Amino acid sequence: MRTISTAVSNALHAEHVPYMVLVELDFVEGFVRLTNAGYNFTWDGHEWIGAGDLGNITAIEEGLDLQAYGCTLTLSGIASEYIAECFGTGYAGRNATIYIAPLSAEYTMLTSPFIIFQGKMDTMPIKLGADAAIQVTIESRLINWERSKSRRYNQEDQQSEYPNDKGFEFVPQMVEKEIFWGRKYT
Asked: Minimal CA–CA distance to 4: which of 112, 117, 108, 118?
């Protein structure tokens, strides 16, 4: 349950509700922080790039069921150098967070932005042409429950995760080992 102040509650019940959306994408090369404002904005010690009306976010769903939810972020009118960066950057399984901040009638923040969706980047199809667009599909963390795990109980797999652990070093020798339990070894 989210708690909000009286000023925020009143603003949200008004006929016109201005708000600011902030999107934080964690790429391997560093964070990309965007806002729907028409200008760059500083919050939480970071500069958020003003994307204005260049973007779209699909409806963000929540529910009581234990299932994975997701949304899609679309950015259009992207400069070609950013398109090239997206082709060569690591993003799959990396964090993505969407914040929202209700604004007053004078377009000042009523409260610090709060998280409305948090998940992992899944796919990033890029549409090239007269109007280039990048779509980032963001899945909730519950999507990992639906993915199979491909871990092995062997030395190589253990070393990939824990290089100094020798717990599986003798597993191959034990596969065909006959163990005499409760009787005399002859």
From this structure: 112
> Which 3-state string (H, E, C) describes 114-134?
EEEEEEEECCCCEECCCCCEE
Mean pLDDT of 23-42: 86
Q: Give the global pTM.
A: 0.68
CB 135 within 8 A of CB 74: yes
**What is the C-alpha to C-alpha distance for residues 104 and 35, in angstroms, rounded to an integer?**
17
Domain ranges of the chain: 6-146
For residue 149, the surrounding DSSP H or E stretch is none
Distance CA 20, CA 52 (A): 10
How far is residue 60's CA from residue 137's CA, in Å, rounded to a whole number?
12
